Amino acid sequence: MKNNKGFTLLELLVAATIIGILAVFATTSYKNSAADARVAAAKTRTEALAGAVQRMRFEHPAFSTVSGQMQDTASTSCSYSVPTGLISCGLLGNNGWERDTYMTYWICNGKSGKCASSPVTNPLACMISTGDAKLPARYGSGYIYCVSAVDKKETLAAGS
Q1: SS3 string of 107-127?
Q2: Of 92, 43, 40, 102, nearest to 70 (Cα)?
Q3: What share of the chain is helix, strand, coil (3-state, %, to 5)?
Q4: pLDDT per residue rounded down to tens, the chain (160 residues)
Q5: How far apart are CA 134 and CA 117, in angstroms?
Q6: What span, in angstroms and rounded, lies between the C-alpha atoms of 66 and 78?
Q7: Under CATH, which number does the domain 11-156 receive?
């Protein structure tokens, strides 16, 4: 009598193929979820930046926004860059700003400068994608997310 205790080569190849296909789907899903998490974290930072700008403008009415920086209109010797000055002033927490290579953040003074393509009417802060390869194509270099006092929206900037 013949002893058939084992798998045939064909059965092993079929099992290996199925495992390979599942691994491809799992890897793709993981990469997309990691990219979505990066963008969600960047949106949260943008909202925090907008809140800090709103508090700064409320507490210090002499400050205005000039090309992405908070500046004291009475004394030009004091300016608050994004986001370093707001962190040192205690208006913004240092939650990984220096490690974010996927997005750039801007303080807005209406729809001008880097905030000209803002999808909201009077933005306080915007983030713009750097076009990093670790983000999916839908977050290309034209991706912009802006926060105003009453609204938040995202879009692809014009001309992207």
Answers
A1: ECCCCCHHHCCCCCCCEEEEE
A2: 92
A3: 40, 20, 40
A4: 566 778 888 999 999 999 999 999 888 778 778 888 888 888 998 899 888 888 887 877 766 655 555 554 444 444 455 677 777 777 788 777 777 778 888 888 788 888 888 899 888 888 888 877 777 777 777 788 999 988 898 887 654 4
A5: 23
A6: 12
A7: 3.30.700
Helices (H) and strands (E) in the chain, counts: 2, 7
Which region, left, alpha or beta, applies to residue 67 given φ > 0 means left and ψ of -120 to 50 means alpha?
A: left
Which sequence spans correspond to the domains of the chain? 11-156
Q: Do 107 and 49 contact (CB within 8 A), yes or no?
A: yes
Tokens 């927490």, located at residue: 93
